Amino acid sequence: MPSNIEVTPKVWTKNFWGFFMRKKHDYEALLKYMRMLKDGYSIGSIANKFGINEKQLKYLWILYQKQGISVLHRKPYTQTSGELKQRIVSDIEKNHLTLVQASLKYNVSVGRLGIWLKIAREQGLDALLIIKKRGRLPGMGRPRKKKPEEMTELELLRVRVRQLEIENALLKKVKALVEERKARLRAIGRGQSEN
User: Fold this and answer.
1) Global pTM value
2) What sections of the chain are H helices per DSSP?
């Protein structure tokens, strides 16, 4: 096996809160994995070295061999019709296909097939005909903030009162913290005496 191919994607990245999260492998990294597989590297060695799921890599490798480089590109979301979902689930059930086999046959993700199977088994095939809208419902979320020019005098006064309430609460909190610190220092004998 050639050892001149060096790929070091950052598999773990720190998020805003300092936790490590798995990074998705981009197109270039996936293409290098496919080239390494062509060159004779094993799926297990690539998976261990670069932190990609072994099953996912094997699945991509099969797709890559069948369909070529286009499978490595991220696909946009497409709505699948209820009839097609029913046909796929029926085929899986009748022919005892594994999710991977069905995924390769119909070019649908394994995860999505698992969801459809669960829905069909729990609620029946007709439940697959129901298409849910994606995203938030209209009217949900925060209302748009008005600009000061658009507000009435009453609204402006309410905003000002709210700001003053927040400021007052903050000052009370700071005063309580200062008093607590002084009491703690007095308790250990470092604080100023009250005389």
Assistant:
1) 0.47
2) 27-38, 43-50, 54-67, 82-95, 99-106, 110-123, 153-187
